[in-house]
Each structure stands twice: as C-alpha cells, then as structure tokens.
Amino acid sequence: MTVSSSRESTRGAAGLDRRSVLRGGALAGAAVGTSALVGPSAIAGAAADGDDAGGGDGGGVFRHGVASGDPMADRVMLWTRVTPSPDAAPGSGLGAPVVVSWEVSLDPGFTRIVRSGSIVTDAGRDHTVKLDCTGLAPDRWYHYRFRALGQTSHSGRTRTAPADGALPATGRWRIGVVSCSNWEAGFFSGYRHLEARGDLDAIVELGDYIYEYGRGEYAGKFGAVRPHDPPHDIVTLADYRIRLAQYRTDPDLQSLHAHVPWICTWDDHELANDSWSHGAENHEPHQGSFPDRKAASAQAYFEWMPVRPESLRDGGHLYRRLRWGSLAEISMLDLRSYRTEGPDRFDGHAIDVTGTMTGAEQFDWLARGLRSSTAHWNVVGNSVMLTPVLLPPLDPRTTAALTELLGVPREGITYNPDQWDGYAGERRRLMEVIRAAGTRNTVFLTGDIHTSWANEVPFEAADYPGAGVGAVEFVTPSITSNNIDDMVGLPEGNALSQTAQGALGQVNRHVRWVDLDRHGFTVVEFTTEYAHADYWAIVAREDPNSGAYPMASWRTRRGTDRLEPAGPLP
Predict the structure, then answer these.
(1) How far is C-alpha 496 from the geometric centre of its chain's CA atoms?
(2) DSSP assignment of 406-423, as one string?
(3) DSSP category for residue 243
(4) pLDDT digits over 503-552, tens only?
(5) What is the pLDDT averaged over residues 363-372?
(6) Predicted confidence (pLDDT) at residue 143 exceeds the cutoff of 80
(7) Contacts of 530 (CB under 8 A, 6+ apart)
(8) For the chain, which terminal residue's Cβ has fewer other Cβ atoms within 10 angstroms, N or C?
(9) Could you tell me where the DSSP H helices lie in 354-443?
(10) What band does 9 get if pLDDT is binned at 50, 70 and 90?
C-alpha cells in the first residue's frame, strides 16, 4: 500500500496525505542459530527469581513473550527473546550470551515432556531464540516454555500439521487471517478476539506486521493512539529491532502468538513503503544505502519472527510451502524482494506486461507447486490483491481516498500498479498456469489494502463470467491501518463509502462483496467440500477493549471457483 509520510506534504483537494496500502520486502539476514554453549556463570547481573509470568510482566527475562510458527507434520518453529540485564534492550547490541533451555510437553502442566534442550543466544542475534523442534507427532497440540537466568517464560501452545496424505482429525483446517497492524493507529483488539475463539489451527499473517514510519507520520483518524519507538523512520538494524520489539509488547499480539502457530510473510512496511527489489517510494538519499536498509530489515525480521531459518542461508528465501495433510497446501509468497519497479501509477494505463512481481525463480516454484499439488485446496498467501479492479467515477473525496488507498489515478479507468494490476502480464501467465493445471480449487488469501473483499478471479475481467473464473480471493481487512472512512474523516458506514462499495461492484462484477470502512480480521475454514470465509469487524480500534461483530460470510464449493453468500461458521 502506498503511504506517504508527513514530510512529503502532498495533499489533494480533499486534504488527504498520499497514502495507499503498502508492502515490505527484503532478503538476507543472519540466522538465529546455536553457538558454543556458555554457562549461566558467564552471565553477569542475571535475575534469579523464578517467574512463571515472566513473559508478560514488562520487566522479566521473557518480557517479549513466546511464539511458534511454520507447523509441519513432525516439527514446528519455537521463538522467544531474553533480556539478560537492564542494558540489554532490543537493538542495544549489549548483554552477555545466555543459555536458554526449552521444553515441549503433551500437557500444560509439563508432566509429559517429549522434547527438551538448550540453545545459546547473544547480542549478535538481539538475544532472540529460534529453534526448529523436530521429532513431534502429526496432528497434535503441544505446550512449550523456556527457562533462563532463574526465570520461566509463559507457556505457549502450538500444534503440528496432519501427516502428508492424511485428513486432519477434525476434518477441517480453520485459520485466522490478518494483516496491516499499525501501532499508532489503534490497539490490536482483533488479535484478542481471534485468541478468544479457541478453535483456530493457525494464524496466516500476510504482511505489514509493523510500520516503519516515525511518530505521527501515519496515524489514525484521531491522531496517534500510542507513539512509535524509535520516534524517527526506522532505517538501521537497531531501529528495526526496536520497532519489532515494541510491537511484541502489545498484550493481545503477544497472547495470540502464544496461543497458536503463525505462518507469516512480509509486505512493504516491514522495510519501506512501496518497496521493490532495488528501492522504495519513501527511501531518501539521506537515509543511506537502500541495500543496507533492506538487509537490516530482513535480519531483524528473521530474528523476531517464527519463520523457518532455512530462509536465511545463502541463496535462501522467505517464500515457502506448507501442507495441512491432504486437505490444503499453502504457498506463502514474497512479493517485495524480487519485483521490478512498477509502472507509473499516474500514466493512465499502468499495466506492465513485462515486469515481474515474483521474480523468475519464485514464479517457477509457484507454478510447479500448483501443477503438482494433490491437495484438496491450493492456498496462496498473497500480500497484494490479485483480482483486477477498475475504479469508477465517484464523489471527489471518495475518489481521492480510493486513489490513495488503491494507488490508482483519479481519472478512474486504470489499474493499481503496486498490486498485481501493475504486473498484468505476469498475472496472465499465472492464471494460465491455473487454467492448464485443471484444478478448480485455488484460493488466494490477501492483505495489504486495509479493506475487505470477496472476489472471483476471472481469466478475462472484460469477459466475466463468460471467459471463466480461475480462483477465488479472500482479502482481509486491516487490524488497525487506515481505510476509507479514516481517510475522508467520516464515520464508518457513511454514505460516500456505501456509494463507492456499490459502484465498485457494478463496474467490477467479479467483486462479489467489498467493505471499505471497517477494521478487523477474517476466519477461513477449509474442508473437503468447501472453503469458507467469515469477515469480522472490531467496533473501535481506539479502544483496547473493543468488541467485535460479524460483517459477512462467503463460501466457495470445491470444483466451482465461484462464491456464494453463506451463514457464519459454528
């Protein structure tokens, strides 16, 4: 998404900062690995009191909580961060090496421990701990915890995927889908409501986990609800570590991480707005080398996120594929690290038939996976919207807001060059791969644009549905980041937004439903018969105790690639 900072001072007639919904990318970084063991006696100033609540008390060794991710049939990633001394804050580069022990148990009381070990962390990896816990049984829930310096972390809850070729014991894969959580714009109540459900197998996080802007540069409708740290745009490795650490102090985010494994990818704000392989919209010369900034953001991301560390090896990558038994295969894409610079968003055409969103190697990897998959559902974790969107003429204020949010010219007849619309040639090739594969069971899960959409992805938008439909796309709303009502300064559900929603659907008939105003999350369930999406809204992002309510439910039956309205999941 395109978000312009306040320093640009570009405002249209409606008084809007030039913003959209952005991305973040980078590759490289250093693995959070194991080094020679250093005993506890080497740690100076260690806290000695046991603290089973140390993961969330704000001052313990484990103050940034615990997390798990990338579940497979026999393994899952485990994560934590230790603070060995008061001066060893995130990004400080200070603090002695620490021996951290870990345990995985079949029960929350840790009476049936099945795996355990020790690992060393130090300031070189910002005192984060990541390990790939192998040797687990498929399709099971586990509990895990860490110990260091006389303290014990909160226990986390995680699970493994079903065995390859097996259906899950529950007969379903139910996941929470989230993206675009801006600290300054509000509280992360959506995470709290996802945890409270107690029925999710995983969280799929589609990018913009953090925002890189300085204080007040991209706040909410009523200003910054809580200030960013550090106060300036983040550029250095220390900056990115500090910002990630700040987000990981949010109690709702921390609790959801501890409750269920996450499957994550990045978009642009983990690095810089509208980033591509060799630059970004808001990277300025005084901020130094862009490759250095890109490497710093990637290193911090891999340190702080529970993604598998193979991504960090030379020649490695963030894009990866995970299976949920025979039910679903999910390909998580990286749409920032390899993309060519997009076409000019204001040229009135903005359809690039030669550029690449994925890069050649990632495209071939995705195509091979779609062709060879035997899963009931091919799921694609996709950070920017695939579905083509034509912007109709609207009220000037609404047009200006959509222009900024979607990145399209005010003239109204073009495509968004920062989404797949700007890489139409590659999108056509991808849709031809799907057509040739002959499987009518592809679902794109998408974030980025801070709004909710239920789309049928046509082979030819101008000939819908005559030319056929190749996939469906569920686009999740933002956790907190600005959408249309925030940008035009009106209440949710205002007449301008309602008119825009209707007009978008009339001009783009393959867009079955859209909501432009509400923040929230999506719950998606896959069975052998259907893929189903429940869209949820939070009442007020400025309220840390906000309630939530259902917006809409859409379902595609296997073998149809068409959407139909549905009732909510039980």
Answers:
(1) 29
(2) HT--TTS-S--TTSGGGG
(3) H
(4) 999 999 999 999 999 999 999 999 999 999 999 999 999 999 999 999 99
(5) 96
(6) yes
(7) 555, 556, 557, 558
(8) C
(9) 360-372, 396-406, 424-437
(10) very low
Name the nearest CA neighbour of 205 among 449, 552, 522, 480. Answer: 522
Q: What is the pLDDT of residue 415?
A: 45
Contact 175, 188 (CB under 8 A): no
Q: Bridge-partner residues for 550, per DSSP?
A: 536
Using alpha carbons, select from 512, 388, 511 the residue that is nearest to residue 459: 388
CA distances from 341 to 275, 283, 358, 394 (A): 8, 14, 12, 29
Q: How far apart are CA 44 and CA 62, in angstroms?
A: 17
Structure tokens at 543: 């309220």
| pLDDT confidence band for 386 (50 / 70 / 90) | very high
Residues of the chain above pLDDT 90, percent: 75
CB 364 within 8 A of CB 319: no
CA 238 distance to own-chain centroid: 22
Q: In terms of Cα–Cα distance, which of 424, 407, 412, 281 is closest to 352?
A: 424
Q: What number of other Cβ atoms are within 10 A of residue 31's Cβ?
A: 16
Residue 158 CA to residue 68 CA, distance in Å, equals: 6
Between 502 and 343, whose confidence is greater?
Answer: 502
Radius of gyration, alpha carbons of the chain: 22
Rounded CA-CA distance 130/498 in Å is: 46
Cis peptide before 291 (omega within 30 of 0): no
Does position 437 have pLDDT exceeding 70, yes or no?
yes
How far, in Å, CA of 360 to CA of 19, rounded? 29
DSSP letters, 30-66, are ------S---GGG-TT---S--TTTTTSSSSTTTT-E
Going by C-beta distance under 8 Å and a sequence separation of 6 or more, which residues neighbour residue 198?
none
Sort 535 into a burial class: Cβ within 10 Å, 0-12 / 13-18 / 19+.
Answer: buried
Task: Tell me 183's DSSP state.
Answer: G
Reference 121, options 52, 62, 197; nearest CA is 62
Q: What's the rounded Cα separation, in Å, for the pair 476 and 480?
A: 12
User: In the numeric block, which tokens belong to residue 565?
Assistant: 């309205």
Please tell me the pTM assigned to this model. Answer: 0.89
Q: Cα(465)–Cα(278) distance, rounded to whole angstroms?
A: 38
- The residues pairing with 66 across neighbouring beta strands, listed in sequence order, are 80
